[in-house]
Design a protein that fits this description.
Keywords: DNA replication, Nucleus. Pfam families: PSF2_N, Sld5. One of its GO terms (biological process) is DNA replication. Belongs to the GINS2/PSF2 family. The chain is mostly helical. It has one domain: Ribosomal Protein L9, domain 1. The protein contains eight helices and five strands, in the order αββββαβαααααα. The strands form two sheets. A three-stranded antiparallel β-sheet has the order 4-1-5. A two-stranded antiparallel ribbon has the order 2-3. Helix 2 packs parallel to helix 4, helix 3 packs parallel to helix 5 and helix 4 runs antiparallel to helix 5. The longest helix has 27 residues. The protein is elongated.
């Protein structure tokens, strides 16, 4: 799965908007949305919310987790934990990126929200690199619980190649291993026997 496909999945997340127009239910392949009544909240997929916002036909109600205080608590929990903390949304980076690019006027303290989301991403990426490094340097597993699809996808190109190389090195190791103690003693004894007959 490439980043565009992951973003496509993230854009299906439902989000609440307050439309500025009236319309009957819209029938889509993925399901029906609406009806739309001006000033009454309605849940729509993220891609619809973005499209309507760009046309200035709605106000976006940001997800509850997109709040500076909640994000600060999440950031501190992520810093304090050795493991990955469960995120409030499976697609937090995609939601954050899209909403902060087109709806900053609808999000309180948007610049701070953007900074904290980026900080959380950086902390989690550092943990992920550490887990992959632990895996590559000899442990049989790495801790990857509570990762989002985007985070997993960021390491997908590296891990199969790295694991393949590790497997090849392990298969080659017996050929280049040092002689065992019994082999060394056998060689020592045979050389002693040879020297006594000289």
């Amino acid at each position: 799965m490439n980043p565009e496909e992951v973003e496509f999945l993230g854009e299906k997340q439902l989000i609440s908007i307050i439309p500025t127009f009236n319309s009957s239910t819209i029938h889509l392949v993925s399901g029906d949305i609406g009806p739309f009544r001006a000033s009454l909240p309605v849940n729509v997929p993220l891609w619809v919310a973005v499209n309507l916002k760009q046309q200035r036909k709605c106000k976006i109600q940001p997800p509850d987790w997109m709040d500076v205080e909640q994000l600060e608590l999440l950031k501190e929990a992520e810093k304090a934990s050795r493991n990955f903390v469960k995120m409030p949304s499976e697609h937090y980076m995609i939601e954050g990126k899209l909403l902060l690019s087109i709806a900053t006027d609808d999000i309180a303290r948007a610049d701070e929200v953007r900074t904290i989301i980026k900080d959380i991403w950086d902390i989690r990426m550092a943990k992920l690199r550490s887990s992959v490094n632990t895996l590559i340097t000899g442990k049989s597993y790495g801790n990857v619980d509570n990762l989002t699809i985007m985070e997993i996808n960021s390491m997908r190109p590296l891990i199969p190649h790295a694991m393949d190389q590790i497997h090849r090195m392990k298969m080659e190791r017996p050929r280049f291993s040092t002689p065992s103690q019994s082999t060394s003693l056998g060689l020592l004894n045979s050389s002693t026997v040879i020297s006594t007959f000289k």
